[in-house]
Design a protein that fits this description.
The protein has one helix at 112-119; strands spanning 2-3, 14-24, 36-42, 47-48, 55-61, 68-70, 73-74, 83-90, 93-98, 138-143, 148-153. The protein is mainly beta. Strands 2, 3, 5, 6, 7, 8 and 9 form a 7-stranded antiparallel sheet that branches. A two-stranded antiparallel sheet has the order 1-4. A two-stranded antiparallel sheet has the order 10-11.
């Protein structure tokens, strides 16, 4: 994945302190959020996934028209349809990438859910209960020379 706005001149893309509309996908990190949400953009990252990306786009700026809801935005076509938040698979785990400020003065409380849900995701990712990928019960399994315990999905889904 790459940051599509990195290195762009301010006459190509500029957005500081604006509210932008994004489509939100259902996922444990986005639990409690509406299908569309307004996000505070303050010179943040915008992600573009590459072929072979393993993970889930959690939120993406609306496509086919300007995502601006309030504020000032130059170059909206640079971010239309691009990811605002991702759940990227890394090795046996995953990393939550949020490219906007979920908590900031003046920000709507609606995006706090992303920050708090990501902080407690351990409860959903197979390390403390159900598999967050498929919802099935996780089980503890001993692996490696030191017999370290790890959890894996009981149904054998791909997100062990």
């Amino acid at each position: 994945m790459t940051n599509v706005v990195a290195g762009l001149r301010s006459d190509e893309f500029f957005c500081s302190g604006a509210l932008l509309r994004a489509d939100v996908k259902e996922h444990p990190v986005t639990a409690g959020m509406p299908p569309q949400a307004d996000l505070l953009f303050e010179r943040n990252e915008v992600f573009d996934t590459k072929p072979g990306f393993r993970g889930t786009v959690l939120a993406s700026y609306i496509s086919n028209h300007n995502p601006l809801r309030s504020g000032y935005l130059i170059g909206p076509e640079k971010i239309e349809g691009k990811a605002a938040a991702l759940d990227a698979v890394m090795g046996q785990g995953h990393v939550i990438l949020i490219g906007f400020r979920t908590q900031w003065r003046g920000q709507s409380h609606g995006t706090y859910k992303l920050m708090f849900n990501a902080a407690v995701l351990q409860q959903f990712d197979g390390s403390g209960g159900d598999c967050y990928a498929c919802g099935n019960a996780a089980r503890r399994r001993r692996t490696g020379r030191r017999a370290r315990a790890r959890r894996e999905c009981a149904s054998g889904c791909s997100r062990k």
